[in-house]
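Re: the request from the purification team.
They wanted to know what the chain is likely to look like in 3D before they choose a buffer screen. I agreed to run a prediction and write the result into the notebook, where they can find it.
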Amino acid sequence: MPDPKILRQQILDLVREYHEQNWLGDQFSPGESFIPYAGRVFDAEELVNLVDASLDFWLTTGRYSRQFEQTFAAYMGRKFALLCNSGSSANLLAVSALTSVRLGDRRLRPGDEVITVAAGFPTTVNPIIQNNLVPVFIDVDLQTLNANVGYLEEALSDRTRAVIFAHTLGNPFDLDAVTAFCRQHNLFLIEDNCDALGSRYGDKLTGTFGDLSTLSFYPAHHITMGEGGCVTTSDGNLKVIVESFRDWGRDCYCDPGKDNTCGKRFGWQLGTLPSGYDHKYIYSHIGYNLKLTDMQAAIGCAQLDKLPRFIAARRRNWQLLRDGLADYENFLVLPVATAGSEPSWFGFVLTVRDHAPFKRAALVQYLESRKIATRHIFGGNLARQPAYQDIQTRSVGDLANTDRVMNNSFVIGVYPGIDEPKIEYMLSVFKDFFHSL
């Protein structure tokens, strides 16, 4: 009978051979090949890890999940990294954690306010609403698309308890100002780091300044698991709370398939349950099931090894676009990195100036017709989206720049699947558009 270990290795060797035969890559043809704004970039190692995990047939969190969490926490310089099934779920877990009774008098209660921005992705804001809290919107800066910190004090009220901002498109928000504001007023800070894996502010990575930070591993992001997300923290109490909300709200912290990690599984008395009730079925939070599968984590482990070169490619592509479009600043607001930062760019944002002799739609349609993908800035002004019309929110000022983002801004890609010939083609299309005016 064949040795299972030998059979397994033969299977994995065949997977590598399959990758070499099936994923050779397409030849780029300017004007005919489509240039997406984002996408997955991988080699044989992701496929090998995926098949290796599938051969274990461990269908929930397992060895690859533990490996990723440990390696990723070390990379981030955080004590804890907790995988979940998406970046949106990571935000839900982070905000929900702040409502836990384990936080005592600091916990967020219904009606408390959380300062954020409306120019962004809905699932940065939605967990505020889903936890019966009130989003307070402040405006953004047009060159960074991040929160204009000059509005922070005006946004403050006696119900303010937390701040959640995203590092928009990989560009860090003003962490000096925001962290000082949060310290002064004893506010929790959540960094939505989903677009900014590898970005630095000063000598630290983004995602290491807040009480909690969140990541996304969707295919458009810096590394991917297909679906996937993560919450990081260095606070042991918050770690326990996030785990509980992620894992059905249970009080037990045993890994899947494990029992009696605490050594007193039948020795607890919580709530008004009878003494000795099985700790595996005691629930201390109104939780969810937001765990990740081990097969997804296996892909992430291979992706994590590639992160340094992914970041380098994103920075190279962003700079080539920035240099190549500099002649058109009379018509376009070009992005700038936040002072003191080194972004790991998610995309390249362009904002058509109010006085330009064309509208965003004309430029976007021109690019799309020439096979260059574009995206709007997520939800534009979320306060104007239909889903938010009957939701209690508060806005500071008229959010004029947020409306400009909604009307005039769009994004093109910088992901590692775009190489220099593609950048050269993209710039040539912009040149043709402006010469046609």
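For the purification team: The domain at 50-295 is CATH 3.40.640.10 (Aspartate Aminotransferase; domain 2).
Please add any questions underneath this entry.
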